Structure formats: structure tokens, C-alpha cells
Amino acid sequence: MSEQTAPTTVPTSLWVERTGTREYIGRSSRGAEVLIGSQGVPGRFTPGELLKIALAGCTGLSADFSLSRKLGDNFDATIHVSGDADRENELYPQLDEEFELDLSELSEQDRERLLVTVQRAVDRACTVGRTLKAGTKVTLNFAVEG
Q1: For 59-126, what is the HEC assignment?
Q2: Full domain range(s) for residue 27
Q3: What are phi and psi of 140, to 5 degrees?
Q4: Do both 76 and 106 map to the same domain?
Q5: What confidence tens digit (pLDDT) does each residue in 40-82 have?
Q6: InterPro entries per the record (predicted)?
Q7: What is the pTM of this model?
Q8: Nearest alpha-carbon partner for 114 in 78, 66, 72, 82
Q9: Pairing between strand 77-82 and 96-101?
Q10: Exposed e or buried b for every residue in 68-80, given b needs 16+ CB within 10 A?
């Protein structure tokens, strides 16, 4: 397959189902599940936490090819993401990511070059980060019985 030809895929369906008081389960048509709940509910992610994890995951996946090409397939990476909600305005005014990598085997010049390449890859390919930076229109419709 050439780099210009995208694989044909069926869009993944996503939904959440209520499982209890202030508890939901997120599901995908690929069989993935994530537990969602209010702050303080054990074993559950809050929606805000999932937003942050989506950002960090997108950053990692966007950088993975560039990093594995230079470091090999078995490199370690951890991306920490943080940011407090502004409860008065009901939004996250800032999210901060910290990408932990061991680049000690590279020269300083190779490290700098790799980090520029990784930043470009993330800026280009991380749709979650790009969407958060640009903002997005969200609509809500209701399918009501009765």
C-alpha cells in the first residue's frame, strides 16, 4: 500500500450506556470498553480525565513512528497530562503534557533533530490536540420515545 492511499475502514461506532447512579460504560463497535463515572467513584474515569488521556494518547500515537524509526520498536515512553478545570466557566483553560523519553544514547544534535521531528508529527497528526486548540462545534440531539 502506498503512503498516499489510506486503508478502507468502517467507521467505529461509539456510545455510552448508563450502568448505575452517575456511572456509565463507554463502548466501541470494536469491542473496547471504558468505565466512566463522577469524581470519587472507584475504578472509573471522569469525562475530563478521559479528555486528558485522549490528548496524551493521541500525542503518543502521533509520535510513535518517528520515535520507533530512530529508537527502535522497543523504546519506553510515558506522557503525563495535567490541567485543572475552571469550574466557574466549566472548561479546561490549559492542558499540559510532559513526554518522558530516554534519549541518552543519542548525540545532542540527534536529540534536538528528533524532538523537532516528533513535535512536527504531533502538530500534524494529533487530531485531538488540533481540535482542542482550534475549538469545535458540538451538537446534541434527542431520540425520545413516547
Answers
A1: HHHHHHHHHHHHHCCCCCEEEEEECCCECCCCECCCCEEEEEECCCCCCHHHHHHHHHHHHHHHHHHC
A2: 14-45
A3: -130, 125
A4: yes
A5: 999 999 999 999 999 999 999 999 999 999 999 999 999 999 9
A6: KH_dom-like_a/b, OsmC/Ohr_fam, OsmC/Ohrsf
A7: 0.89
A8: 66
A9: antiparallel
A10: eebbeeeeeeebe
AA identity, residue 70 = K
**Which pLDDT belongs to residue 1?**
47
71 and 41 in a common domain: no
Number of domains in the chain: 2
Residues 26 and 17: their CA atoms lie apart, in Å, by: 7
pLDDT at 12: 94
Phi, psi for 32 (deg, rounded to 5): -80, 150
In 3D, which of 34, 28, 33, 3 has the Cα closest to residue 14? 28
CA angle 13, 16, 22 (to 5 degrees): 170
